[in-house]
Amino acid sequence: MVKTYNKYEAEQTFGLVNSALSNVLSASDSITRTSGAGIAVVGACEDVYRWDLKKGELVSKWRDSSSSSQVTAIARSATDVDLYAVGYEDGTIRIWDSRIDTLVISFNGHKTAITTLAFDNTGARLASGAKDTDIIVWDLVAEIGLFKLRGHKDQVVSLHWLYHKSGEDGTTNGATSGDAFLLSASKDALIKIWDVSAQHCIETHIAQTNGECWAMGVTPELDGCITAGSDRELKVWAIDLKELLTSGHTFGEEPDKRYLHDRGVLHRQGKDRTIGVSFHPQADYFVVHGSEKAAEIWRIRSEGEVQKSLARKRKRRREKESEANGHADVEMNGVEESSVPAISDVFVPYTIVRTGGKVRSVDWINKRAHKKLQLLVSCTNNEMEVYDVPVKDQKKKSKSEDADYTRTYSVELPGHRTDVRSVALSSDDRMLASASSGSLKIWNVKTGTCLRTLECGYALCCSFLPGDRIVVVGTKTGELELFDIASSTLIESVAAHEGAIMALQIHPDGKSLVTGSADKSAKFWKFEVVNEDIAGTKRTMSRLRLTQTRTLKVNDDILSLCFTPDGRLLAVSTLDNTVKVFFDDSLKLFLTLYGHKLPVLDMSISSDSKLIATCSADKNVRLWGLDFGDCHRALFAHNDSIMQVSFIAAPPSREEGHHFFSASRDRSLKSWDGDKFEQVQKLSGHHGEVWAMAVSRAGDFIVSASHDKSIRVWNLTDEPIFLEEEREKEMEELYEQTLQTSLEADGDLLNPDQEATAASKQTTATLTAGEKIVEALELGIEDLRVVQEWQQRKDSNPNIAPPTRDPHFIANRNVSAERYVLNTIQRIPASQLHDALLVLPFSVLPSLFTFINIWIQRQWDITLVCRVLFFMLKTHQRQIVASKELKVVLEGMRMDLRSTLGEVKDIFGYNLAAIKFVEDKVRDRGIVVLEDVEKEEARIKNGGKKRAFVDVA
């Protein structure tokens, strides 16, 4: 009989505040209806988190169960503020609605990670840039990719739309979506302007002369931008927006005309690479940051302030020249030179905000504030901070020291600042202790909430003491720290070793523990309860104390320790690639296990004390018998160093006694059958090296901690898995990866030199969808033929029985062939339809056109039918023109299509007129009080709307 196992599945993820790959966005108070600093939207591994910055609470979480890629870019629509575009590491883009926390649209067009996203002014189009150097413009209404722009030679770092700016009332002054242009900056040190309607690059400049361009920020008025790169330079550009938008499509007539002008270079104080430039939407400030712990805020002076600055310069120059007895002509030349403002006279440093971690992204909060600036900072060390920067009155004081700033809010308690190096479960598996450099946190495993946060040293190992009230931590400095969970206090710190404490283990009897250190010794400690006097009183207080009893010296650094569950033996792994097994009572050497080629990093002994599993940096797991020390099997377990291995401490059945788990730096966990030496399941989900792992006593869940700052819980389910099926799934995943790579390579060969191409990407999903369409067409044509023959026979024999139809139609409630084919196409997502239609060979076109003709006559889903028809005509234009058979079909289809579209157009016109009628009725019912009649009438004439205070009765 084939043995079955139960499957482990990811249950929850906690310990995350943000990711180092994603940018952060702030949502204002009026929109989120919250007090304080509002909501921060940030990527956290494969999820998107929405944090309440004042309370430090997680408001909601967005996750697509079909995706495991990390979030790399987030953008927010300006027209529909509840709509967010999220880019992922695998090149996909998902549109989320924050009101209902639901996925709306999914796009897949890029081959690599998304780096930047930008909505246009209408909110109907989205531009995306990625590491594959391509720019794709998406239509959010039709849910399709419009086109792909090629021209950059490296990853696109920033995209901005250039369009007619809105007036005070929010209108776009009659501008349409076709009037927009696209400004792009890339790591190839180029900045480009694209005519979106013509799908053509009309202007290119070198943004950085001495390196790569990593960031670009555009002013709110869209009349200028700043680019930054690998050095301290910030290049300022002026955009001739008015000339650009009024020039129409006459770019070829004046090839020398330029709309982007270099205005000079600024120098920031930081010497690191600049990765972000962001202008304040209301105030004359912008912030620049690199990858260090600082964000530089600059101020843009007004014209009056610039003239005052120039006047001071001229005055100082005259004073210096008068002191040096300079001539009048020299003085006049100096005056003329000082009359032209330099770029450093307009843009001046304001202050430098020193952050708690390296800055990843910034965004402005409270964008309408005038007395202070609020800056939201997302750091790479898993925290977010909000800073208040006061705005000084420049009239009273034009020159002063840097402005003071204060950190008002921070989101840091829900996660560690550094990588978690050790995790431990309590005896009842309800609490989890996670230790890192500088902090120890206690978690509720079921809810994922942080119960306690305590300061500690650089922790390398930790464990709960019997009773689950105290946690012991071994540090890099050789100290043992005891923490009381209830009072959140440090009870005692013992200088246990001269080197780092690499491992500690509680004795099975619960009365002592052993520590192993890099000072080549293992020390045994006994738990003692002593009574201490309380200062100033006659009372005493019981306190736990560690007392050293024995010391075991070895020849090399100790990396791991493990007791047998019966307490008879102690296994010690050292830096010389060996494992030594000692008797616990006498500390005499019992066995020496040789075989690993690199040091053994962790060990675990089975519950029956018969097997020991060792894992090493040589990527192998070895199983040894503790009776004779023989190696039962060496398993090549992972593709990188294996950090931890663990048997189930109290297995519910004897069969599971030798099941164990391994965690590796290859970002995966695996479960194994130690009796059959077979891999049972591979658990993938982490996006960084897995440093630590803890298995519950009964093996019903696993906890893992990774370099991506996440702590994940994997629960045992009732779903059975079979070893053969798991191996088949692994082979299928490998085949799909190879297929995807070949499809991407084939896509690169198509039109490699074209500046604008179709925004298509073949995936396994689109291939499957295309195959389903072909299968439906074959079944449908055959069914039409059978039904037609039956109709002909029925004319001569009315009593003839109906034909036997294909089971596919019977399973779908005996649906007709034309409805079955249409349903098949309707089930394909709109964003994948074009790619699925590309799979269809030309030989199935007659069948497809036959059904399209039927759908047009019956007026079924005309929008979808026209979309399929026009795309196929465009794709196979040459073959269709040369086919006499299709010419007859298209001639008959043309007249039906024209009449059908005419009817649809009449319906649209009727509905539009009805909506306008209802709008007029609602307006007439209100009490309208105009502020300025003449000004409002002039603006309405130019295409604006009335600004009025309306009271609806």
UniProtKB/TrEMBL annotation:
Its main location: nucleus. It comes from the Eukaryota. Residues 818-919 form the Small-subunit processome Utp12 domain. InterPro entries: Quinoprotein_ADH-like_sf, SSU_processome_Utp12, TBC1_cilium_biogenesis, WD40/YVTN_repeat-like_dom_sf, WD40_PAC1, WD40_repeat_CS, WD40_repeat_dom_sf, WD40_rpt. SMART domains: WD40. GO terms for cellular component: Pwp2p-containing subcomplex of 90S preribosome; small-subunit processome. GO terms for molecular function: snoRNA binding. WD repeats lie at residues 107-140, 181-204, 413-453, 494-528, 593-634, 683-716. The keyword Nucleus applies. Pfam families: Beta-prop_WDR3_1st (PF25173), Beta-prop_WDR3_2nd (PF25172), Utp12 (PF04003). Signal peptide: none annotated. Belongs to the WD repeat WDR3/UTP12 family. This is Small-subunit processome Utp12 domain-containing protein.
